[in-house]
Amino acid sequence: MGKSDELTRCLKTYFGFDSFKGSQEDIIRNVMAGKDTFVLMPTGGGKSLCYQLPSLLMKGTAVVVSPLIALMKNQVDAMRNFSDEDGVAHFINSSLNKAAIDQVKGDILSGKTKLLYVAPESLTKEENVEFLKQIPISLFAVDEAHCISEWGHDFRPEYRRIRPLINEIGRAPIIALTATATPKVQHDIQKNLGMSEATVFKSSFNRPNLYYEVRPKTTNIDREIIKYIKTNLGKSGIIYCLSRKKVEELAATLQVNGIKVLAYHAGMDSAVRTENQDAFLMEKIDVIVATIAFGMGIDKPDVRFVIHYDIPKSLEGYYQETGRAGRDDGEGHCITFYSNKDLQKLEKFMQGKPVAEQEIGKELLLETAAYAESSVCRRKLLLHYFGEVYTQDNCGSCDNCSNPKKQVEAKDLLCAVLETVIALKEKFKTDHIIDVLLGKETSEVTSYQHDELDVFGSGTDEDEKTWNSVIRQALISRFLDKDIENYGLLKITTSGREFLKNPISFKVVEDSDFEDTDEEVPVRGGAACAVDPGLYSMLKDLRKRVSKKLNLPPYVIFQDPSLEAMATTYPINMEELQNIPGVGAGKAKRYGEEFLSLIKKHVEENEIERPEDLRVRTVANKSKMKVSIIQSIDRKIALDDLALTKGLDFGELLDEIEAIVYSGTKINIDYFLNEIMDYDHIDEIMEYFKDSSTDSIQEAIDELGGDFTEEEVRLLRIKFISEMGN
User: Fold this and answer.
1) Which of 589, 716, 587, 719 lies closest to 664 in space, CA to CA?
2) Using N-to-C axis directions, what is the helix angle for 244-256 and 620-634, rounded to 10°?
3) Is 216 helix (H, G, I), strand (E, B) or coil?
4) 583 with 616: CB under 8 angstroms?
5) What is the mean pLDDT of the chain?
6) pLDDT of amino acid 153
7) % of the chain beyond a pLDDT of 90
8) Bridge partner residues of 492 (DSSP)
9) 271 Cβ neighbours under 8 A, 6+ residues apart
10) How big is the chain by its Cα radius of gyration, in Å?
11) Span 291-301, average pLDDT
């Protein structure tokens, strides 16, 4: 029997598989030949087997460094299932007491244990290092190796101490494994683990079965998610949120809307966390709402959708989290909700960190924003980020390829960008290049005297969005390169210099506009709302008539999202109308009758079946918060103090108050306004809203000039809606 047959027989005996997947066999041979091995393989490619099988066949115990306790438990349970000996796999981490650790050490010394999982923190403990020096070690495996690099999405400083500890314990081959690494991160890992001579096995990052989609994040996001899950009943899904608070709120909202769901985040009691994870794996629930603490090494093959409620901090994180969908090569839908506001929040979180870390964080955020806003094939963008070229023009399974945007010729624009990069001696980032093209006299531009260059102001015919799009697509087409070592400085490539000598056609698609609007953006396509356009326009006409009669701007009566929801769920009585987002009891009573009779007539004449089941129920806690805010305002508590006591930042408090007044409740914040603003200013903004046909904050700021802050304008809009509409 040849060596290959022997390995395949062991694979069948220990793991029940008939054949190896991808490059697994070559990797295993390399490890068993005692060579250092670097494995870059997407989630679901079968990384664990690459060290598990050799550990069973080689003399001694394999030491696997792994970052998460839940992941270790998962892997150890799986290994024990493959063997009739429980002692075959163990873990050592902070969750074990002394008796349990003694049991583990006993099994290792007796030679039963082939795999020992350790957390990096446990590996650094002196007594563990001394113990490991006494035993024969077959190999060291460093799982989730991207944790070594501060450019990785999950940097762990203690991972940088692994190599010195290995040297102290004793030499054995090292296998480092990760599912996401840009060329920069890969270099960092190899350098730090002292394995620059390692054989590198790199699988393609393309997951053809995943569908990537980015939707604008609007006030109606919970409703969209509920509708999506209800049209995919019984399918398993993960929803990622950035904050623990949002995880708990969203899980509660989904629960009251009849969805089998639990929450998971690092702040929960560990027993509850494990219980919730098991409920998801055992399919007692369909959906888990989680922070990124959930999912590393979760081996559930049939996750059918991954939803990002908030944009992730990096494209590596995004790739890894979306990669948990469709690991069985079946359907996997990846939906991300994106708004510029989220990016600003993430940047705020970085303040207070060391400057270098902030710079890296910002650069990673910019890459994520570029991905979300781009109209280019998402697969092409993702693979380019990981240093892989995707040659197809249309992948057929992302929103940009399913609904391609119009392309425009941008040969001259690319030449202008390349000339500017050269004029700036390849020492600046995208935003600086665009400032020079647009002729912006920023402090940075003038301090470098770039306002004196010929290229300064050469691009004023185009806007910032277009220049961003040209630069992004020039990077994908390899005319430009980003020096990631130096925080994203733009360099020109050989092909870029060729292009300047001999320009050829260069088409770009304009990027999507994800400007934050205060109005709901109706999302089309996918599983979005099927708005009845006929009814929607009739409701808008009625709103116009009512607004004329009462001499009020239309948005004071009902906002567009409320009309859109009416044209989706067809409410025909007061109770149903009050369940429409943005419509409270007061508003329903004041304006509702005419709208209800119009909808009723439309439903009867067109014999429409109403989707009453899609009434989004809200969680009582939310209304508790609202009641408490209204009571505090009645007691004239200063709004900045109120925000502090509620644990909200000022903008979030204004969100809550806006929701209160837009749904028809009257409040009086004059006591606070008179403290912080001049009477003249208050009158000026109030007059503006009386004459304006829109309640957009951005338009108000543009119209009023730079004299007022966004907060001031929002406060006055609250006063206006409350007094005029309620």
Assistant:
1) 587
2) 120
3) strand
4) no
5) 83
6) 57
7) 25
8) 480
9) none
10) 29
11) 69
Q: Which of 184-188, 490-494, 642-646 shows the highest mean pLDDT?
A: 490-494
For residue 124, pLDDT over 50 is answered with yes
User: DSSP per residue over 86-135, as a string?
Assistant: GGGEEEESTT--HHHHHHHHHHHHTT--SEEEE-HHHHTSHHHHHHHHTS
The tokens of 564 are what?
Answer: 């859109």
What does residue 696 show for φ and ψ, rounded to 5 degrees? -65, 130
Distance (Å, whole) CA 297 – CA 706: 51
Nearest to 324 by CA among 376, 374, 369, 287: 287
Check pLDDT > 90 for residue 640. Answer: no
Q: Give the domains, in start order, of the chain with CATH numbers.
A: 3-202 (3.40.50.300), 210-374 (3.40.50.300), 407-509 (1.10.10.10), 533-614 (1.10.150.80), 620-725 (1.10.10.1390)
Instruction: Provide the pLDDT for residue 511.
Output: 66
> Whole-angstrom Cα distance, residue 110 to residue 107?
5
Shortest CA distance to 54 belongs to which of 160, 178, 120, 140?
A: 140
Q: What is the 3-class SS of 550-616, one letter each residue?
A: HCCCHHHHCCHHHHHHHHHHCCCCHHHHHCCCCCCHHHHHHHHHHHHHHHHHHHHHCCCCCCHHHCC
Could you report the per-residue pLDDT of 524-559, keeping only the tens digit for each? Answer: 322 234 467 888 889 988 988 888 888 877 777 888
Q: Is the pLDDT of residue 702 over 90?
A: no
Q: What per-residue confidence (pLDDT) applies to 513?
A: 63
pTM of the full predicted structure?
0.58
628 CB burial (10 A radius; 0-12, 13-18, 19+): middle
- What integer is the mean pLDDT of 352-357? 74
- CA 125, 129, 130 angle in degrees (round to 5)? 115
Whether 408 and 505 have beta carbons less than 8 Å apart is answered as no
Strand partners, 287: 237, 261
151-189 burial, b at 16+ Cβ within 10 Å, e below that, comes to: bbbbbbebbbbbbebbeebeebbbbbbbbbbbebbbbbb
User: What span, in angstroms and rounded, lies between the C-alpha atoms of 74 and 70?
Assistant: 6
Mean pLDDT calculated for residue range 705-720: 86
Residues sharing a CB contact under 8 Å with residue 15, sequence separation 6 or more, in sequence order: 49, 52, 53, 82
Q: Cα separations (Å) of 283 from 262, 287, 333, 689?
A: 11, 9, 19, 52
DSSP assignment, residue 296? Answer: T
What is residue 398's predicted lDDT score, i.e. its pLDDT?
A: 94
Taking the C-alpha atoms of residue 546 and residue 539, their distance in angstroms, rounded to an integer, is 10
Bigger pLDDT: 259 vs 339:
259
Q: Distance between CA atoms of 69 and 49, rounded to whole angstroms?
A: 19
Max alpha carbon distance in the chain (Å)? 93
Helices and strands in the chain: count of H runs, count of E runs: 34, 17
